[in-house]
Amino acid sequence: MTTAYALTIDLPQPLPSAIETLRAALAAEHMGIVSEVDVQATLKAKLGLDSHPQKLLGICSPKVAHSILSAEPDMGAMLPCGCGVAEARPGVTRVALQDPAVIAAATDNAAVHAACETATAALQRVVARLANGNEGTASTAANAS
Fold first, then answer.
1. Using one digit for the tens of pLDDT, what is the confidence trace for 20-34?
2. Element (H, E) at 144
3. Which among 64, 89, 114, 135 could disulfide-bond with 24, CB atoms 3.0 to 4.6 Å apart, if both were Cys?
4. What is the largest CA-CA distance in the chain?
5. What is this structure's pTM?
Protein backbone atom coordinates (compact mmCIF):
# COMPACT_ATOMS: atom_id res chain seq x y z
CA MET A 1 0.00 0.00 0.00
CA THR A 2 1.20 3.50 -0.79
CA THR A 3 -0.07 6.81 0.51
CA ALA A 4 0.69 10.30 -0.74
CA TYR A 5 3.60 10.46 1.70
CA ALA A 6 4.79 6.92 2.43
CA LEU A 7 5.62 3.51 1.04
CA THR A 8 4.20 0.92 3.42
CA ILE A 9 4.39 -2.80 4.02
CA ASP A 10 3.36 -5.17 6.80
CA LEU A 11 6.02 -7.70 7.80
CA PRO A 12 5.06 -10.93 9.61
CA GLN A 13 7.72 -10.30 12.26
CA PRO A 14 7.91 -8.73 15.71
CA LEU A 15 9.35 -5.20 15.74
CA PRO A 16 13.01 -6.03 16.57
CA SER A 17 13.22 -8.63 13.79
CA ALA A 18 11.42 -6.35 11.34
CA ILE A 19 13.93 -3.57 11.99
CA GLU A 20 16.82 -5.95 11.29
CA THR A 21 15.10 -7.14 8.10
CA LEU A 22 14.58 -3.52 7.06
CA ARG A 23 18.22 -2.70 7.89
CA ALA A 24 19.42 -5.48 5.53
CA ALA A 25 17.08 -4.35 2.73
CA LEU A 26 18.28 -0.75 3.10
CA ALA A 27 21.94 -1.83 3.07
CA ALA A 28 21.39 -3.47 -0.32
CA GLU A 29 20.56 0.05 -1.60
CA HIS A 30 23.51 1.71 0.20
CA MET A 31 21.10 3.24 2.72
CA GLY A 32 20.91 2.91 6.44
CA ILE A 33 19.22 3.76 9.71
CA VAL A 34 20.98 6.80 11.16
CA SER A 35 18.67 7.50 14.11
CA GLU A 36 16.15 5.63 16.23
CA VAL A 37 13.54 6.85 18.71
CA ASP A 38 11.73 4.33 20.92
CA VAL A 39 8.20 5.79 20.88
CA GLN A 40 6.84 3.14 23.24
CA ALA A 41 9.48 3.94 25.90
CA THR A 42 9.14 7.70 25.42
CA LEU A 43 5.36 7.62 25.81
CA LYS A 44 5.74 5.55 28.99
CA ALA A 45 8.50 7.74 30.47
CA LYS A 46 7.11 11.14 29.54
CA LEU A 47 3.34 10.61 29.62
CA GLY A 48 2.85 7.42 31.62
CA LEU A 49 1.11 5.82 28.64
CA ASP A 50 1.29 2.18 27.65
CA SER A 51 1.45 1.56 23.91
CA HIS A 52 2.38 -1.11 21.42
CA PRO A 53 6.03 -1.41 20.32
CA GLN A 54 6.85 1.38 17.88
CA LYS A 55 9.89 3.31 16.76
CA LEU A 56 10.69 6.27 14.56
CA LEU A 57 13.73 5.74 12.34
CA GLY A 58 15.81 8.18 10.34
CA ILE A 59 16.67 6.62 6.96
CA CYS A 60 19.49 8.02 4.84
CA SER A 61 21.62 7.47 1.78
CA PRO A 62 24.86 9.44 2.09
CA LYS A 63 24.98 9.92 -1.69
CA VAL A 64 21.42 11.23 -1.90
CA ALA A 65 21.85 13.42 1.18
CA HIS A 66 25.02 14.91 -0.27
CA SER A 67 23.27 15.65 -3.58
CA ILE A 68 20.36 17.34 -1.85
CA LEU A 69 22.51 19.36 0.55
CA SER A 70 24.85 20.44 -2.24
CA ALA A 71 21.91 21.66 -4.30
CA GLU A 72 20.01 23.31 -1.46
CA PRO A 73 21.70 23.36 1.98
CA ASP A 74 18.57 24.33 3.90
CA MET A 75 16.94 21.06 2.84
CA GLY A 76 18.89 19.56 5.73
CA ALA A 77 15.83 20.51 7.77
CA MET A 78 13.98 17.71 5.95
CA LEU A 79 16.66 15.02 6.22
CA PRO A 80 16.95 12.16 6.97
CA CYS A 81 13.82 10.61 5.53
CA GLY A 82 11.48 9.39 8.23
CA CYS A 83 10.32 5.86 8.83
CA GLY A 84 7.77 4.60 11.30
CA VAL A 85 7.70 0.98 12.43
CA ALA A 86 4.93 -0.26 14.67
CA GLU A 87 3.86 -3.67 15.96
CA ALA A 88 0.20 -2.86 16.53
CA ARG A 89 -0.67 -6.58 16.31
CA PRO A 90 1.63 -9.13 17.95
CA GLY A 91 4.06 -10.52 15.38
CA VAL A 92 3.11 -8.10 12.58
CA THR A 93 5.11 -4.92 12.07
CA ARG A 94 4.01 -2.12 9.77
CA VAL A 95 6.85 -0.27 8.06
CA ALA A 96 6.04 3.19 6.65
CA LEU A 97 8.91 4.77 4.71
CA GLN A 98 8.62 8.47 3.88
CA ASP A 99 8.46 8.99 0.14
CA PRO A 100 11.28 11.41 -0.77
CA ALA A 101 8.81 13.04 -3.18
CA VAL A 102 7.54 14.82 -0.05
CA ILE A 103 10.93 16.55 0.19
CA ALA A 104 11.02 17.30 -3.55
CA ALA A 105 7.59 18.93 -3.34
CA ALA A 106 9.04 21.63 -1.08
CA THR A 107 11.33 23.07 -3.77
CA ASP A 108 11.61 23.81 -7.47
CA ASN A 109 15.30 22.83 -7.48
CA ALA A 110 15.83 20.29 -10.29
CA ALA A 111 18.87 18.74 -8.58
CA VAL A 112 16.84 18.08 -5.43
CA HIS A 113 14.08 16.54 -7.54
CA ALA A 114 16.57 14.25 -9.28
CA ALA A 115 18.09 13.10 -5.97
CA CYS A 116 14.65 12.47 -4.52
CA GLU A 117 13.63 10.44 -7.57
CA THR A 118 16.74 8.31 -7.07
CA ALA A 119 15.86 7.83 -3.40
CA THR A 120 12.22 7.00 -4.16
CA ALA A 121 13.27 4.33 -6.65
CA ALA A 122 15.67 2.84 -4.07
CA LEU A 123 12.97 2.75 -1.39
CA GLN A 124 10.54 1.13 -3.83
CA ARG A 125 13.14 -1.59 -4.35
CA VAL A 126 13.49 -1.93 -0.56
CA VAL A 127 9.73 -2.47 -0.25
CA ALA A 128 9.84 -5.00 -3.10
CA ARG A 129 12.67 -6.88 -1.33
CA LEU A 130 10.71 -6.92 1.90
CA ALA A 131 7.58 -8.13 0.09
CA ASN A 132 9.54 -10.93 -1.56
CA GLY A 133 11.43 -11.95 1.57
CA ASN A 134 14.88 -11.40 0.03
CA GLU A 135 15.84 -8.25 1.88
CA GLY A 136 19.59 -8.44 1.35
CA THR A 137 19.73 -9.40 -2.31
CA ALA A 138 18.92 -7.68 -5.55
CA SER A 139 15.30 -8.05 -6.53
CA THR A 140 13.84 -8.25 -9.99
CA ALA A 141 10.31 -7.80 -8.68
CA ALA A 142 8.20 -5.00 -10.00
CA ASN A 143 7.40 -2.06 -7.76
CA ALA A 144 5.69 -3.52 -4.72
CA SER A 145 4.21 -0.27 -3.54
1. 999 999 999 999 999
2. none
3. 135
4. 46
5. 0.88
